[in-house]
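Hi V.,

You were right to ask for the full record rather than a summary. Here it is.
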Amino acid sequence: MLDGESSASDWRRTYSDALLKAAIIDRAVRWSWRTHERGVVFEIAFRTEAIRDEFCDQPSVRTALDAVPDPRHGLTITPGG
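Predicted structure:
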């Protein structure tokens, strides 16, 4: 997440608990937050792509992603390898 009209750190404080709860429910194997000069990074790993997709489809996750500070350029979602 990149900073936008508000800071990505504020977004993290607002949505971190909901994202972590959703991750645990969907059996995430690991997750971490990193802060950088222009925003935050939330890395999360699941055992399968299907589980990852279930996570992304949860209403709380959709709500968090829809609320990123810069919805046009500030959100990047990439599958791991």
